[in-house]
Design brief:
The chain is about 15% helix and about 40% strand. The protein is mainly beta and about 170 residues long. It folds into two domains: about 35 residues, no CATH class; about 110 residues, predicted glycosyltransferase like domains (Thrombin, subunit H, Beta Barrel), CATH 2.40.10.220. A six-stranded antiparallel β-barrel has the order 5-6-7-10-9-8. A two-stranded antiparallel ribbon has the order 1-2. A two-stranded antiparallel ribbon has the order 3-4.
Length: about 170
């Protein structure tokens, strides 16, 4: 495995078999920094790059017969071509999941997926992996709109934080 030094970020090859289950201390041969390394614990299963987001998402979960079994709001933490990671206050029940969001013009856009997993985390919320059903034009449009909305809102929020003046009032001619 390749490990980076925590201080100088130099890269080194290390045989993962020599690392103890509780971690092992190593010393950087370039800068002398001592730090602890651990066995890799999770193998990345996603085939596509994850893109970080913070979009508000409505979700609706249905059973095999089409009956609604859970619904609520969550925050999309990241998204890829194959799916998204959603943080919710309640567990999403298994089955078909419909995800919906709106853009700044209040247009609704949605996509279908299936629950890959849902686990409670230490803060009391749930992380749910949603796998998109098919990779088609509808999924691609959903992903694109979500990322555009996140970038638009994030950019405008950045401007508001760094500009103490109130935003200009739009002029409406009569």
């Amino acid at each position: 495995m390749i490990i980076p030094c925590k201080s100088c970020h130099s890269l080194f090859r290390l045989d993962s078999r020599v690392i103890k289950p509780t971690g092992s201390k190593v010393r950087c041969s370039k800068c002398g920094e001592v730090f602890k390394v651990f066995q890799p614990d999770v193998v990345e299963r996603r085939k596509s790059q994850r893109i970080k987001t913070q979009n508000l998402i409505s979700y609706f979960s249905f059973d095999e017969t089409g009956k609604l079994i859970s619904h609520g709001l969550g925050i999309a933490l990241d998204i890829s071509k194959g799916g998204m990671l959603l943080e919710t206050t309640d567990s999403i029940k298994s089955g078909l999941v419909v995800l919906a969001a709106t853009d700044r013009k209040k247009n609704l856009f949605e996509v279908r997926g299936e629950l890959a997993y849902s686990k409670k985390i230490s803060t009391g919320t749930y992380f749910s992996g949603i796998k998109f059903i098919g990779v088609n034009e509808r999924v691609t449009k959903f992903i694109t709109k979500l990322i555009k909305e996140y970038n638009y809102q994030g950019y405008n929020l950045f401007i508001r934080w760094h500009n103490p003046d109130p935003p200009p009032v739009p002029h409406i001619s009569t």
